[in-house]
Automatic annotation (TrEMBL):
<dbReference type="InterPro" id="IPR003439">
    <property type="entry name" value="ABC_transporter-like_ATP-bd"/>
</dbReference>
<dbReference type="GO" id="GO:0016887">
    <property type="term" value="F:ATP hydrolysis activity"/>
</dbReference>
<keyword id="KW-0067">ATP-binding</keyword>
<keyword id="KW-0547">Nucleotide-binding</keyword>
<dbReference type="InterPro" id="IPR017871">
    <property type="entry name" value="ABC_transporter-like_CS"/>
</dbReference>
<feature type="domain" description="ABC transporter">
    <location>
        <begin position="9"/>
        <end position="250"/>
    </location>
</feature>
<dbReference type="Pfam" id="PF00005">
    <property type="entry name" value="ABC_tran"/>
</dbReference>
<dbReference type="GO" id="GO:0005524">
    <property type="term" value="F:ATP binding"/>
</dbReference>
<protein>
    <submittedName>
        <fullName>ABC transporter ATP-binding protein</fullName>
    </submittedName>
</protein>
<dbReference type="InterPro" id="IPR027417">
    <property type="entry name" value="P-loop_NTPase"/>
</dbReference>
<dbReference type="InterPro" id="IPR003593">
    <property type="entry name" value="AAA+_ATPase"/>
</dbReference>
Amino acid sequence: MSGEDSIVLRANNVYGEYIVSPTTSIKAVNDVSIELRRNEIIGIAGESGCGKSTLIKILYGYISYPLTARGRVLLNNKGNSIDVLSVSEDYKRENIWWGVVSYIPQNSMNVLNPFMRIGDHFSELLRKHLKIEKDEAYKIAEEYIVDMGMRKDILKAFPHQLSGGMRQRIVVALALLLKPSIVFADEPTTAVDVVLQKVLLHFLMDKQRELRNALTIVTHDMGVHAMVTQRIVVMYAGRVVEERTYRASF
């Protein structure tokens, strides 16, 4: 596979701004260009407020007020190039999000509906994208959750009945359910202890090796980058100021 063929996403001259008033905006991402490659773990590092999380929202194509974005984010999906900043949110929901590109946010409760059991989160996602019946979807969810190293009875729980660490594992499992080509993980180990941090990182890395996808981990924790990333991009004040290869220790 050539270097060009391995590129699954290419962002060119991307800008992101937050509107704070009719005449004022704050620039969070300033002229960033970046490439993501198949079967690679890339880390995005930098201090809080440097634009890391905003950048991956733009790469994912999740643009909502007050965030605005411009530039080009070209997704290579089965040989077709799609600019995720040019297509509608409905198109992304139907054709890109979850199945091709997944996003793991910092707070698991931003993904999980507190009024739905965990099993319904999995079965609803499967039914929507695979067009299968509820019973079949739930059976697949049971097999999948066990394969991911969790107990089957977790599917009967509501999000508030699980620990923060377990909710984060559930969100990671949801993000990987449809075997996406690209996964964005925004501070995936925030607010968990050191032991659970290693569990989550191994969890992500094992699935990345299995799927051979592009995993992008955003964190200010350089220890996490040292453990898992193969290439690191450092941001400062909305710009990429350094990019280099890393030798992961896991």
